[in-house]
Amino acid sequence: MADEQRIEDSAQAALAVTIYNDDLALIKDQRLVKLGPGENRLAWRNVSVEIRPETALLNAQTGGMDLTLLEQNFDFDLLTPTSLLKKYLGRRVDVIRANDAGERTTESATVLAVNDGVVLRYDDRIETQLVGHLSFPDVPEDLRDQPTLVLHIDARQGGEGKLELSYLTGGLSWKADYVADLAPDGRTMDLNGWITLTNASGIGYKGAQVQLVAGTLNRVRPAMPPPAMERMVAMAAAAPMPQEESLSEYHLYSLPRPTDVLNQQTKQVALLSAPQVGITKELVVQGQPYSYRASSGDGWTPLPVASMLRFVNQGGSLGVPLPQGVVRVYSKDSRGNAQFIGEDAIDHTPKNETLKLKLGESFDVTARRKQTTFKKLAGSSAYDYAYEASFAMELKNAKAEPVSIIVRESIPGDWEISNESQPHTKEASNLAAWTVAVPAEGKTQLTWTARVRH
């Protein structure tokens, strides 16, 4: 068998890391290797602990080496006192003890068991409690101090050149985070985006060219996901911004320069900076469809008034594909201090699409609704009916300035509004909407009657 050659990461010539949204990354690790003709065993050290060995691919990049991969083994059983002891199950070790005077004695014993403590057989007895410490003659070959992929390859001729090992791994992920700073007039915002990289793969990637893929890939899922690992946080900003391009049905973001992504680290780099993005603030009340199917005698029911922020992903400084993430919104108080006013998640959003963020619920603007009448017009079952239901909604405004509230009602089946205190718009097949003006420190009542058929 060919002698094993250790390929350390100090021989690394290039390193590229492509990270996907969902705990997946593609590693391309290029190292300088010297091979002899015939069979070679390469111990490619310091690969990811979360490597998927079945995805490993070895290619010769330079040197004209003609290689055939015969076998590969991923050795992930790392050297620890416990793992070393387990490897010596049934084998002899030396037990070294020292007395009060510092004199050392050595006695040989066989390791019988290592579960819940060690069991040792001496020549004349068996002991279950270790007094002293153990001495081992060597480290077994299959016990590594680093995660190692052992490659058994055949080279038609010897030589020196660069080999690239590519593989998929878990433990690496990224997400986008956004910060929106509202202007005092509430008409524009400054939007800044950050990419957050998290590395829990068991090793660090130094001087790597990092690329990020935004989009949802189809993957074959294991029955149970691996347990989450603890993560530490470190902050770092990168400029200029990442370059963006299309990649099949996804979008690819390339960081502008090589960076270190250390193990158990979260790193942040700048994604975008978009000043003075036009926004629209909205107050929205959303009704539910169940009250159109049955009589309700509950009287007035309070409904939350959602504070919404809407903007379009377009313009010179925006207008780029936005990866999914969380947008956190800040507004300045009377002293000019930025205060947090809410957050919401966005999906992957192409350019020219409209985004709506729910920031919270209004304190000063309130709404309540009640069913005023309900009668059955026709039908004999829950799936063959015609009903008519009337409603009243009271909207109150405690602010010192007037507000406009959007009232949306989800109405099931085939419906029409037969009577209303102000005109509605049909936003969707099951959605009626009214825009209601409410005076400062005043209230407005909206009424309507709907006929529903199913």
Explained architecture:
There is one protein chain. The protein is mainly β. It folds into 4 domains: 4-77 and 145-169; 81-135, no CATH class; 173-278 and 306-360, no CATH class; 284-304 and 362-454, Immunoglobulin-like, CATH 2.60.40. The protein is built from 1 helix and 33 strands. Strands 2, 3, 5, 13, 16, 17, 18 and 19 form an 8-stranded mixed β-sheet that branches. The chain has a 6-stranded mixed β-sheet with strand order 26-23-21-29-32-31, with no helix packed on it. Strands 10-9-8-7-11 form a 5-stranded antiparallel β-sheet, with no helix packed on it. The N and C termini lie far apart (78 Å).
Short description:
2% of the residues lie in helices and 58% in strands.
Cα(first) to Cα(last) distance is: 78 Å
How many individual helices? 1
Number of individual domains? 4
Classification by helices and strands: mainly beta
Low-confidence stretches: 223-239
Oligomer: single chain
Which percent range describes the beta-strand content?
A: over 45%
Question: Overall 3D geometry?
Answer: elongated
Sheet bearing the most strands, described? Answer: 8 strands, mixed
Total number of beta strands: 33
Q: Which bin fits the share of residues in helices?
A: under 10%
Rg over C-alpha atoms, rounded to the nearest angstrom: 33 Å
What is the overall pLDDT average?
87
